[in-house]
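Input:
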Amino acid sequence: MTEPARGGMSRRGFLTTVGAAAGVVTLATAGATVGPLSRLSPLAPRRASIGPQKVPVNRSAAGAGVSHTALQPGYRLGVGGLSLSLFELQSLAQHTAVLPIACVEGWSAVGRWTGVRLGDLLDRAGIGRDRWVRVESLERTGIYRTSEVSPAYSRDPLTLLALRLGGEPLALDHGFPCRLIAPNRPGVLQTKWVHRIVAL
Amino acid sequence: MRRLLYGAGAVLIVWGGYGLFTATRHPRPVPWLTFFVGAVALTDFLIAPTVIVIGVLVARLVGFRLRPYVISGLVISGVVLLVAIPLLSGKGLRSDNPSVQPLDYTRGLVITLAAVWAGVALVAVVREWLRDRRDAVERGRTPDPTAAR
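Output:
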């Protein structure tokens, strides 16, 4: 038997080191999703306050290829058989909800969104809140071009078709003219640049 | 029994290989192979030798009293470095989206490593001071078998 080497690391020391390494990495990156920690996280791949209107963006309008179409003055939103201009959307009852964009990439950021309740729109279009609907983006391609919305969301008063973020009109990269924002829903399913909602 | 296990393993491998070409509409086995072989090659030919060389250097250069703390600091620094490499590489940066990786990550890495080594130094000083004091107290006493470490 050989003597154990002196000055090596004890088992407890090793476990403590592994724990410390996990703790350091967590602290250095957690600010991407835990707002109050963001100042302590110099290695976070996102920061909640950096982005247009102080909210980060996953897919930009340029990346999605909608920079031109989203800004067309003749924009109209189709809801079932209904067709609404941006001005008409703005004239409907507006509601505000404080909800996060929670990206599956691991960051999240809270915004103050203002717009029309999805349920109100569906009622107005005669679809009602008890049917599944598909929300379609102006994007031409991509697996997240559309998302399906269950009645549970439509009935929730927090589910909005948002026109404004932080009191200002929605930035192009956040989905101008309007985007879906709902509680407890992955960021990729908060469809941006919405131009049509159809009953399923 | 062993043959049975080999057989089951082989079936699973064949099933996995079949899935590699059929699970998606556009099979891309080359990136998969890069990752599969690359991860093994990276640990065996880069990470493991680097760790061994650093280990030898630490054993030669650092006194045994400080050695555990230096090893701790190096392990934590290594993990931090692995996490920082993708950020430092700038891969994933997009000109149309400035909210992606918006921070200065060289600065971030320096700050994090400085904090790690400051923490390690603090722990080393406090623990070694406590140990010295305890040893001094023990030396002052009459021999007591229950106090022996």
